[in-house]
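$ ./design --mode recover --in tokens.txt
reading tokens...
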């Protein structure tokens, strides 16, 4: 004979709630009736409750019971609620304390919040408001615990060298970097702007047998076309107007170490065959010079473009590409490693707390959700800038949604792929609007804007000069 199921939905819910660990709450009030009513209500809400009749008893219970949340009356004999608040904050600054009073005043509320109270509520008690305050306090406790777990994870090492992240795409990158560090082969590092290509190159160098030698980075897109040949090969005194002293090129400077050629796809075409010849011969001659210098250099190159597309479009020589690409390391964009965002956020909070002398604990859950929902076209570079901005704007322990940039809070307005142009606009004005809007969308990352628009970085720079906008 089967036994009828006597469990109601409410009783099942209560059993599930009791199975979870209950949040410990200490109630401090000199009125017995208030204590008992609060105890009954909070136990019904699923809290583990202890009672104290005054501040002195509360201090003893804090030692033995270690409550996670304290609800205290303000006006009590001997030790007032504000005095108790100061004592509790001295012992555990992060413990939420909620103050209650029958004599509400703005001055008292301001003073209690200044002393570190979680919130302030008046008698007669607004129980829905109290429950909301308790839920907010529990959320803070949970966020703080998560933050400390992430910080502990970072301290133990959650990445590789200066890289932060444990996602599968990044672990593949770390494994490849380790393998490449034991060889002297050329490597092409690919990835969108802001993914950390130079950091990858520096890590390969630091782990290699050349670690004690120089690491010389050269950004092909940042050097004017008229100067880049001199930068790469060096020049003798008097080789050209303005060459008042002899200057060694980057191959000589990197001798015994590593030369990093960043944005190789932006290197002027006339220079590419000369670079190829130097790489194949292992010798370099300065501009205006006759003597050739031998060098011992490992070359790492990087590009934010699709290399084969750059070859098809005639911007990168195929023979140079193959000379530089014995191995390829591809760095994933942020949108493909979103599981690393909480760890990266905590890493930057720690970094910028030290830099700016702040004490931000963590991101609020809804702020983290905003970061997780965004596509991050500027990748880690953009993410880092957003985190620094938010931390500076935050005046307390938490980064809130309103500390994030407007384009993150209202993604629909910013992520639209349409640019509306007024009637009668000229082609030049339309081009200007397109370039500036794309730069705005990419966080003023010129290399990424150039990639999205199918232009050279130099073209973007020249256009900005034409528009009289600071580069």
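writing sequence...
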């Amino acid at each position: 004979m089967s036994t009828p199921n006597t469990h109601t939905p409410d009783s099942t819910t209560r059993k599930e709630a009791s199975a979870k660990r209950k949040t410990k709450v200490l109630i401090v009030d000199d009125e017995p009736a208030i204590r008992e009513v609060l105890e009954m209500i909070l136990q019904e809400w699923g809290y583990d409750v202890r009672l104290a009749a005054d501040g002195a008893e509360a201090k003893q219970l804090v030692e033995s019971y270690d409550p996670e949340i304290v609800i205290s009356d303000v006006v009590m004999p001997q030790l007032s609620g504000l005095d108790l608040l100061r004592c509790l904050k001295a012992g555990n600054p992060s413990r939420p304390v909620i103050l209650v009073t029958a004599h509400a005043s703005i001055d008292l509320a301001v003073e209690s919040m200044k002393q570190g109270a979680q919130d302030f509520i008046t008698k007669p008690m607004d129980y829905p408001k109290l429950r909301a305050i308790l839920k907010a306090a529990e959320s803070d406790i949970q966020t703080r615990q998560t933050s400390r777990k992430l910080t502990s994870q970072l301290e133990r090492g959650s990445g590789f060298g200066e890289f932060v992240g444990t996602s599968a795409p990044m672990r593949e990158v770390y494994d490849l970097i380790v393998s490449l560090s034991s060889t002297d082969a050329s490597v092409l590092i690919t990835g969108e702007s802001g993914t950390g290509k130079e950091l990858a190159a520096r890590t390969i160098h630091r782990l290699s047998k050349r670690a004690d030698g120089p690491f010389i980075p050269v950004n092909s897109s940042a050097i004017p076309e008229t100067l880049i040949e001199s930068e790469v090969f060096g020049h003798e005194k008097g080789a050209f107007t303005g060459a008042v002293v002899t200057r060694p090129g980057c191959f000589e400077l990197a001798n015994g170490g590593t030369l990093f050629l960043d944005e190789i796809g932006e290197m002027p075409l006339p220079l590419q065959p000369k670079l190829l010849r130097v790489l194949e011969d292992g010798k370099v001659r300065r501009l205006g010079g006759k003597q050739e210098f031998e060098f011992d250099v490992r070359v790492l190159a990087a590009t934010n473009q699709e290399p084969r597309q750059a070859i098809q479009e005639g911007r990168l020589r195929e023979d140079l590409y193959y000379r530089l690409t014995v191995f390829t390391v591809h760095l994933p964009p942020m949108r493909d490693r979103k599981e690393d965002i909480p760890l990266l956020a905590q890493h930057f909070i720690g970094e910028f707390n030290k830099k700016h002398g702040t004490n931000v604990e963590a991101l609020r859950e809804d702020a983290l959700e905003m970061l997780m929902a965004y596509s991050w076209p500027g990748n880690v570079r953009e993410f880092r800038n957003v985190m620094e901005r938010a931390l500076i704007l935050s005046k307390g322990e938490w980064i809130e949604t309103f500390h994030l940039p407007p384009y993150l809070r209202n993604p629909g307005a910013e992520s639209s792929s349409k640019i509306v142009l007024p009637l009668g606009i000229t082609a030049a004005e339309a081009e200007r609007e397109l370039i500036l809007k794309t730069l705005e969308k990419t966080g003023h990352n010129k290399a990424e804007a150039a990639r999205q628009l199918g232009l050279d970085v130099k073209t973007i720079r020249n256009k900005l000069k034409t528009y009289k906008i600071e580069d």
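exit 0
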